Amino acid sequence: MRKIKEVLRLRFAAKRAIKIINRLNKLAKHHAVKQRRTYVKEVKNCRLAIRHFRHVKRRAKAKKALTRLRTIANKLMRELQRKLPIHLLFETDQKDFLFYQRVLAQQPKGKGKIYSLHEPNVYVIAKGRGHKQYEYGNKVFIVSTKDNNIRGCLDN
C-alpha cells in the first residue's frame, strides 16, 4: 500500500510540474518575453522517464526526473519574475507565481496540499476499493428536515 501511495505521489507531482512549466511558457509567449530556454525537449524526456515509475529499477530515474522538472519550473519562474514588467508582475501574475511556488515546494506528508491547479480547494477522499482507491473532491452532506428545509454541510 505504501508503494502505491509513493507511485501516485510521484505521478501527480510530475503532472503538476509539467502543467506549471507549460503555463509559464505560455505566459512568456503572451507577454513577448524572450526566454533563454523553454526546456520543451527536456520536459518531454523527463515525462518519458516518469512513465516507468512503477518498475523497481527505473524508479530512481523517475525520481530524478521529477526533481529536474521542479528545478526547471523554478528556473522559468525566476526568469519571468526578472523579465516581466513590474506593473504586470504585481497587478496580475504575482498571485499565480506565489501559487506555483507553493505547489512546487509542498512535501509528501505536509498539511494543506494542493492536488489540482485549476481547483485548489480539493481534498483526497479515500474510497478503499481496489480499482479506485482515492477520489478527489469535497464531501458534502445534505439533510432535509421534516418541513422540507434542505441543509447542507461541507466536510473537509
Please explain how this structure is put together:
The structure is a single chain. By secondary structure, the protein is of the alpha+beta class. It has 2 domains: 111 residues, no CATH class; 36 residues, no CATH class. The strands form 2 sheets. It has a two-stranded antiparallel ribbon. Strands 3-4 form a two-stranded antiparallel sheet. Helix 1 packs parallel to helix 3 and helix 2 packs antiparallel against helix 3. The longest helix is centred in the first third of the chain and has 29 residues. It is flat, with a radius of gyration of 19 Å. The two termini are 23 Å apart. The model has no long low-confidence stretch (mean pLDDT 84).
What does this entry show, briefly?
This protein is an alpha+beta fold and 156 residues long.
Which helices and strands, and how do they pair?
Layout: H1 2-30, H2 40-50, H3 59-83, H4 86-105, E1 123-126, E2 134-137, E3 139-144, E4 150-155
Antiparallel strand pairs: 1-2, 3-4
Helix pairs in contact: 1-3, 2-3, 3-4
